[in-house]
Structures are given as structure tokens and as C-alpha cells.
Amino acid sequence: MTACTSLAFVVACSNTDQNTQAELSDANIAAIVVGANNIDISAGRIALKRSQNPKVRKFAQTMIDDHTSVLNAAVALVTRLGVTPVNNDLVTMLDEQSKRHEAVLNSLTGTEFDKAYIDHEVAYHETVITVIESQLIPGANNQELKDTLVSVLPAFKAHLKHCQMIQASQS
Amino acid sequence: MRRISLILLCLVNVDILAETKHHQVAITGFEFIPKVLMVNKGDRVTWVNNDIAKHNISLNANAHPLSEDLAKGEQFSVLITNRFAYLCGLHPSMTGKIMIESKNEQSKSSR
To answer: Nearest C-alpha of chain A: how many angstroms from B52?
Structure first.
């Protein structure tokens, strides 16, 4: 299974599993937000170690910086609200998929690495945007958590456009 | 003669002060608001970052940014002498334009 199809599989599973969707608590949502940001920070760090391409390195640094800002804001909010993140099936699936992807990235160099990293960034951001819009925002019970999810959505959309621009320049 | 020069200088300064406007562009939700800003030559424009992510003002994605990277609450000002298109060098899908009011441009050039 390729990186893109496996991410699509994650979304498909989470969308079709009505029980998972119905049972999403604020604690689950917090875990998904923390997990999703950590995944992209980790991928960005690998890119800074392995890529020599200035555009890819600049994008990777932006991902590290922006997702760290979102992560810090999310952690500060859930701490203040007294919500402790609780993993669910979606977090587990994203985490497992991320580990497989990182193993692939760590085996590649040069333009092969750059292509694999950027292709996955496009798929990852498409997936996360879909999950935020279709599950996390509708599922959030606490209004501040819901507002925070709405406010971080433009960041993910700007990141998607950015990596799509790099992807277009690679082909 | 010296007194006349001083009076003229004062008149010119009053003229500049009267026409110079201060405009603000908000950086909110990964957008420049307004995206297109009409100004007069000599006006000042200030960008204010309201996002938790850093942004900057760059003429193109590969050039050195005009501004430092702006954290939340930080701002950057520039005196406008010409129209230009710009973007955020960190998030190149964020674009904006500073345009010069053509009517004012004509009247100033005719002085």
C-alpha cells in the first residue's frame, strides 16, 4: 500500500465507522490534534536531515514551526480545560501509518526522498483537513475547542497549497 | 529670502502631512486582509500578524524578505513609493498587492 492510498484508507475507515464518529469525545479530539501535529513535526525533522533541496528544507522548517505553534496552543487549551487526551482507533491508525512512512523516508535520499516526502505531505494535509472538517469540528463539545479547530484549519489549507506548489515544480 | 524659504518649507511639510495616510493590513487566518490595498504614494502601510504562526512580507518566494518573520502581535511598516505584489515567504499561497491610486499619481506627477 502506498503512502497516499494508506492515508485515504485511514480517512475511509474513520468515516465509515459510525461508532468511532459517534463516540468521539473532546479527549479523543485532543489526542488526534496532538498526534497529527507530532506526526508532521517528526516528518519535517527527517526532511531537514535528509534533503538538500532548499524548497523542501524551507517547507520542512515551516511545518516544524507551524505545527509546533498549533501543538502548543492545543496543549495549553486542553490543559486549561482539564481535558486529558485519550487515544482512539483513528490516532492508532495515523500513528501506525506514520511509522511505516518514516521507515520509507529514512531509506531514501536525493530526489527520491524529496518526492516521497512532498507526495506524502500533500496526502497527509488532505487527510487532516478532511478529518478536521468532517469529524473534529462537528464532534467537539467544548466551544473553545471547536473554535480552536476552526482557527487552525487555514494553516493546514495553506500548508496543502504550499506542498502542492512544490509537488508541481517536481514533476 | 531665508524667511521665504522657511515658509515654503513649512508649507511643503504641511502638504505632505495632510496627504499621508496610514493603512493597515491584517494577517489573519493565513490571509492578507485586504488582499488588494489602494494607497497614495507616500502613504504608510503596516502589516499586523494576528496568527499563531509566523509570517513575513516578501517580494517573491526566493528573495530575502522585506520584513523579519513576524510572530503573533508583531507588525511591519513601510512607506509606499510604488505599487508591488507580495507574498508570505513562509506560506507562498498567501499573496497580496499594494496598488497606487491612479488619480493621485497623476496629480502628484503634474506638480
So the answer is: 6
What residues of B are in contact with residue A151 (Cβ under 8 Å)?
A: 29
User: Which residues of B fall within a CB distance of 8 Å from A162?
Assistant: 91-93
Kindly give the confidence (pLDDT) of every residue in chain A, 171 residues in length, as a single tens digit, with 9 standing for 90 and above. Answer: 344 445 555 555 555 444 444 578 999 999 999 999 999 999 999 999 999 999 999 999 999 999 999 999 999 999 999 999 999 888 898 899 999 999 999 999 999 999 999 999 999 999 999 999 999 999 999 999 999 999 999 999 999 999 999 999 997
Are A65 and B52 inside 8 Å of each other by CB? Answer: no
Asked if B18 is an interface residue toward chain A (Cβ–Cβ < 8 A), one would say no
**Model pTM score:** 0.84
DSSP characters over chain A = --HHHHHHHHHHHHHH-HHHHHT--HHHHHHHHHHHHHHHHHHHHHHHHH---HHHHHHHHHHHHHHHHHHHHHHHHHHHHTPPP---HHHHHHHHHHHHHHHHHTT--HHHHHHHHHHHHHHHHHHHHHHIIIIIHHH--SHHHHHHHHHHHHHHHHHHHHHHHHHHHH-
- Of the candidates A58, A66, A161, which has its C-beta nearest B53's C-beta? A66
